[in-house]
Every structure is written in C-alpha cells, then in structure tokens.
Task: inverse folding
C-alpha cells in the first residue's frame, strides 16, 4: 500500500463509487460494484468534503473550523488515516491516479 | 462474490462491508436474470441444463415492480444478468427504473450484441458499472469454450466503456484450459483500462459439472495461479483491482456460497421465480415462489424455500459446532446435492465433510487428465439446436468432449 496521503492532493470519489443512505438503518454507504462500505463516525463528514476541489489540508481546515480548532492535529490524523484506507480500496481517487488518462485506451471503431 | 476468495484481508476501522452487518435480515443485492437467451454456448454456462421447465420472461412493468419491492426490502445493488441481458430490448428502460430508485446498477454481459450507441443510451439511463466477461486471450480456446470467437468484439466494448468513462470490470471464468494464460489475461484487462479484474474459477454445478473432466485443473496449476496472482497484485498496486476466486475443490474449506442462503442475495430468474442462488432451482423438494403471484417481501421473509437453509438450524455435523460456520455457512447447498444427493449435507469441498473423498477423487482424476493447450478448435457451431449437443474438442493427448447448452439467442 501507499504512504500517507499528501495534504496538497484533491481527493474525490473514485469513478463508479456512489454515496447513498441505507433506508433501513439511516446509515450512509459508499457503493461500488457488488459491494458497499458503511461510513462510521466522522467518516461521512470527511467523505462529503472529498469533492475534487478541496485539498486534504483544506478538508482538515474545514473540519477544524466546524468542530474544534485546537484539535487540528488529531483531525488531520483522522482524515489522513481514513483517506489512506479509502484510497487503498479505490473508493476515492486523487489526480495522480490518472483515472481518465488515455494512455491505456484501445482504439474503438 | 460467492467463492473461496483469496483477496487481501484487513477491514478499515471506519468502514464495514455488507458482510459484517449480520444482525438484520435483509437482502442487499438483487440478481436479476432478465433472460436465459444468449448467443454464446459456454461449456460452464450458468443457465439451467434443462431449460424446458422454465416459463416466459417477465415483462418490463413486472421487472420495474420487482425493483421497487426489492428496494423497499433494503436492496441497494441490482445486477442485471442472464443469459445475455443485452437481448432484452427494454434493457435501457430497466436500467432507468433501477437507477431512479438509487439502486447501484451493474450490467453483466458478454458484450454481444452491443454497439457504441446502445452503450451510450445505457449510460444515459444511469448504468453504474459494466462487467464484461471474456473467455480467453487465445481465440481458438475461447471459441472452443464459448462456441464462437468474440474477443475482437469484446475489445471494442471495453474501449467504448473506457472512452465513455463507464467503470469496467473484466470477468474471466478460469478453468483448466485457460489457467496457463493467466499472465496474458491479466495483461489484457490491464491494457483495456479495467478498474477491476475478477478471476473466478468455474463452480462445478450445472453445465460445468457435466464438463468437469475437461475443466478441473491440477493442484500444481492452482499453485502457479496463486503465485501469479500475488505477483500481479504487487505490480498493479492501485492501478487495477484484482479479485480472485480459486476452486473450492482445492481449498479444504468450503466457499461462503451467496454469503449464506437467503442472507444477502435474492435471485429472480427470467420467469419470475425467486431463488436464493442461481443454481437453487436444481434442488429437489423446494418450491420457489414467483413474483407474479407473491410479494417479494413475503417470498424473502416467509417462503419455505428461503427458510430451508437459512441460519444454522438445518446444519448437520460437523458444521453445527464448527468455528467456521459463521464464515462459510456450511458451503454450497447445490454442490452438496449434486455430489452427495442430499442438499442438507456438509459441502464435500470441506476437508471435514463426511463426503470429502468425492472431491479428493475428482482431484486425483484431474492429475491424470491430459494437459490441454493450444489445440485446434472445433469449428464454432452457430445453428440452433433444440437439445444440448456434444461438440468434440481436439486436444494433444486425448479427446475431451464438451457438452454445451443450445443456442438460445
């Protein structure tokens, strides 16, 4: 797996991943082919800020502002840990993944 | 999905997969088998061996109602499959219905017949993901397995998916005749830009059980496949996810079939009957209710067929007291029936099963069977046949006979 996520990257949901609420439990899940991942605790707040525009540092700033500015180091740690996990599971993507790159695309008629 | 998964362990602290939320009795995934028709005739086809006992396909409106009732029950994923679901002319409409309910909608297809324009329409309708099956990288073997050579068409479909930005999973059913080309299969999916590659070994039920002698590999082949998969994962990193399910005949522990009977999945077959797994209609003594006569919720909660092997009450020894019973749920009921004659037995794939020697015998037979590679294929047969036909496959050391489903497209 990769080292901890760079705080200048701009995470977003990976292609094919959808956030939705479970109508029976009210919990939120990230859905992708054949499976889903429940977001627990602060995970939902963090994932909602993964819009491809905000940097990791920006996400930490927003959460610190909403909750507790003095807890920024702990928040930064939580965010990095979750995003590392989501990245390893390909639930989020960052620019360097070149998801939309054409280098591997075959030719279509 | 339903095999002995050989995938990296580790659950992140803040997430949980469907599998771990064991308290609530609710289905997560609806497998919608829209049709049994298909232009391919794969020797391991999951269609019923006896198609004659099935009724007419459900119409568009009934499928839309099934999707609504499934979503109300808690389903979040719908898998549109078959047969070949592209043969349903109302597929775009069905995708639209599913997506309107916020169901995560995946199409499982051979890619035949498909043009770019139709894929665009499916995407516009809200398709979330495409799972494209390939038989082999070797055209001759692909043709021998499927009855037709379709690799070029599949390459086009993959390229369109890539170009349109539709998440692509490539699925390969592994068996004795294509295992040797695992590196090429992985490279092909990679070159197509697939997000995921699913390497799922044949499950020896139905047509695959009929053809087991030609499909079951040796232990050495499985060992090499494991090593190759580990090397590929190392090399691929995050570029492409690699899921692998190797045959339960070699695993000593049974696969968690459907993640438990009537636990996470419900399958609606083309004529509307609801079954706990794609092969369950082969089990004798069970009556499967239809969405044409019963509400889906009643079938899920109340029907005898779903209750039959749900939970642990049905379990025989040694399952009943086994530590693994909450992980493998006693294995596959259909495999237990087809190998031992009783669906209530422990899956013979388990090394603790009283009937395990059946699997050991099949393994020993595989050791003595001829290696199969680079043989000239029998010419593809496209003409419709009312009954299963036997097609001869020429191999270097012997002649193996493959029984095939009839053309139904």
Result:
């Amino acid at each position: 797996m990769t080292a901890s996520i760079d705080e200048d990257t701009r995470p977003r949901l990976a292609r094919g991943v959808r956030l939705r609420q479970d109508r029976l439990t009210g919990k939120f899940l990230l859905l992708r082919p054949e499976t889903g991942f429940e977001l627990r605790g602060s995970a939902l707040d963090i994932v909602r800020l993964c819009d491809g525009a905000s940097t990791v540092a920006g996400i930490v700033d927003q959460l610190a502002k909403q909750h507790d500015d003095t807890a920024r180091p702990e928040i930064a740690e939580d965010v990095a840990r979750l995003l590392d996990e989501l990245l390893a599971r390909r639930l989020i993507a960052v620019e360097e993944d070149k998801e939309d790159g054409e280098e591997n695309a075959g030719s279509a008629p | 999905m339903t095999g002995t998964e050989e995938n990296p362990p580790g659950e992140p602290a803040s997430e949980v997969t469907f599998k771990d939320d064991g308290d609530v009795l609710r289905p997560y995934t609806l497998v919608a088998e829209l049709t049994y028709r298909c232009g391919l005739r794969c020797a391991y086809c999951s269609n019923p061996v006896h198609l004659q006992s099935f009724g007419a396909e459900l119409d568009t409106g009934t499928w839309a109602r099934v999707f609504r009732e499934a979503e109300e029950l808690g389903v979040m994923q719908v898998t549109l499959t078959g047969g070949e679901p592209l043969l349903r002319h109302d597929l775009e409409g069905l995708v639209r219905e599913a997506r309107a309910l916020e169901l995560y909608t995946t199409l499982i297809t051979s890619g035949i017949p498909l043009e770019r324009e139709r894929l665009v329409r499916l995407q516009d309708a809200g398709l979330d993901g495409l799972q494209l099956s390939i038989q082999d990288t070797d055209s001759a073997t692909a043709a021998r397995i499927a009855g037709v050579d379709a690799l070029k068409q599949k390459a086009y479909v993959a390229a369109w998916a890539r170009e349109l930005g539709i998440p692509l999973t490539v699925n390969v059913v592994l068996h004795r005749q294509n295992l040797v080309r695992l590196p090429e299969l992985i490279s092909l999916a990679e070159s197509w830009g697939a997000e995921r590659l699913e390497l799922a070994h044949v499950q020896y039920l139905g047509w695959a059980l009929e053809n087991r002698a030609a499909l079951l590999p040796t232990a050495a082949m499985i060992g090499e496949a494991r090593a190759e998969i580990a090397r590929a994962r190392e090399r691929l990193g995050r570029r492409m996810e690699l899921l692998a399910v190797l045959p339960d005949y070699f695993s000593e522990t049974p696969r968690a079939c459907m993640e438990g009977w009537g636990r996470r999945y419900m399958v609606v077959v083309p004529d509307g009957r609801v079954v706990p797994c794609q092969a369950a209609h082969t089990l004798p003594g069970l009556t499967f209710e239809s969405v044409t006569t019963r509400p889906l919720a009643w079938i899920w909660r109340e029907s005898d067929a779903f209750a039959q092997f749900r939970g642990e009450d049905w379990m025989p020894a040694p399952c009943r007291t086994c530590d693994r019973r909450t992980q493998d749920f006693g294995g596959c009921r259909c495999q237990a029936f087809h190998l031992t004659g009783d669906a209530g037995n422990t899956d013979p794939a388990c090394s603790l099963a009283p009937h395990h020697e059946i699997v050991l015998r099949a393994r020993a037979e595989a050791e003595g069977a001829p290696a199969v590679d680079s043989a000239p294929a029998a010419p593809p047969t496209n003409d419709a046949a009312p009954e299963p036909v036997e097609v001869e496959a020429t191999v270097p050391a012997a002649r193996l006979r493959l029984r095939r489903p009839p053309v139904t497209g």
Observations:
- Residues 1-5, 8-21, 373-400 of chain B have pLDDT under 50 and may be disordered.
